[in-house]
Design a protein that fits this description.
The protein is built from 10 helices and 19 strands. The chain is α/β, with parallel strands linked by helices and 349 residues long.
């Protein structure tokens, strides 16, 4: 079945519908990751977005339950140059069939190189994909869709309250759209984990008697997640605090820093980050469209910088026992340079 992709600036690309038929609209983003396609689409951080894969072939090792980062597919649509539908080492299901069973709109035979270059050169913008509508109608729908800026999506992305692990210090994790492997990484580092959804009050968190607090990844504009920032600001200094990805941005805002939209975001497993304390470079996994600005606030240190664009990749407020990184230490999939961060956080408790 033929399909159409449009960007709000008027770009029109043709493709082939390879999963569920339908129409999807959202912020168009791309990832450079060559593996981990199932982990990517089950990451709640992609809520409100359409995900294009820059790698030329997607789906060539199948799909299965081991690669699930949540219980559903989050991007409104998946865009690929070529796709496979055979089982493999990743699971007994074919990739396209797996997407179709979950109602995900997906297209291939798209000039993804042209699409990615357009987003890289022109910046983030809304897009739409459809197997039902023509280009003119689809473009009008795209331009009417709300932008991602100013939207708090954390409550929609968060899961239910839950407890994992039986030994070690108690860490309360504020779930803004947390990946399953992040929870597994924290428990594997030796803690008892109580996960509470975004929207939980500071009083409710304090009643759980945490030894440490963790703030997760998630979707949307950090400037709009006012409720979580207020909770973090109230709890800062009571126990050690660690945040990643969106959690890094929310911690920054709670410390008085501001956030800004990146031209086209960081998504993939090849992002070099320099550590301030020793100059060592880590290759990291990232998935974010916003960044914290380094504004020289007393007591707040920028501990890591991106070697791609100089953006802030880590923060520390030593007197408040708070720190964060922009990237994903769980690295599922991806380079494992930063997995030590979970262990360091739990051992410090």
């Amino acid at each position: 079945m033929n399909a159409t992709l449009v960007l709000e600036d008027g770009l029109v690309l043709s493709g082939r519908s390879v999963a569920a038929p339908g129409t999807a609209v959202g912020e168009m983003v791309f990832t450079t990751g060559m593996t981990g396609y199932q982990e990517a689409v089950t990451d709640p951080s992609y809520l409100g977005q359409l995900l294009a894969f820059a790698a030329p072939m997607i789906g060539n090792y199948g799909a299965g339950p081991e690669a699930m980062e949540s219980d559903r597919v989050w991007p409104g649509a998946v865009i690929m140059a070529r796709s496979a539908d055979d089982p493999g080492s990743g699971g007994a299901a074919g990739w396209r069939s797996w997407l179709a069973e979950r109602g995900c709109v997906a297209i291939d035979s798209v000039d993804t190189r042209r699409l990615v270059r357009r987003l890289r050169d022109q910046g983030a913008m809304r897009g739409a994909v459809s197997s039902e509508l023509g280009a003119e109608e689809l473009l009008a729908l795209c331009r009417e869709h709300p932008v991602l800026d100013g939207r708090d999506l954390t409550r929609e992305a968060a899961g239910p309250a839950r407890t994992l692990g039986t030994d070690g210090p108690r860490v309360v994790a504020i779930d803004c759209g947390m990946k399953r492997s992040i929870a597994e990484g924290l428990v594997g580092a030796g803690c008892r984990l109580s996960v509470v959804p975004a929207g939980t009050s500071a009083r409710e968190i304090t009643e759980l008697a945490p030894d440490g607090l963790f703030l997760s990844n998630g979707p949307g504009d950090p400037a709009a997640v006012v409720g979580v920032v207020e909770v973090v600001a109230e709890l800062l200094g009571t126990v050690p605090f660690f945040g990643i990805c969106l959690g890094h941005q929310l911690l920054g805002r709670a410390l008085g820093l501001t956030t800004e939209k990146l031209p086209f975001g960081h998504r993939g497993g090849n992002h070099p980050v320099r550590r301030a304390e020793d100059g060592r470079v880590e290759i990291t996994v990232q998935n974010h469209g916003y960044a914290v600005r380094d504004e020289g606030i007393d007591g707040v240190e920028a501990t890591r910088l991106s070697l791609f664009d100089g953006s802030v990749e880590g923060l520390a407020a030593p007197e408040l026992r708070a720190s964060s990184v922009q990237y994903h230490p769980e690295a599922r999939p991806g380079p494992r340079d930063a997995r030590y961060l979970f262990r360091e956080f739990v051992e410090a408790l």
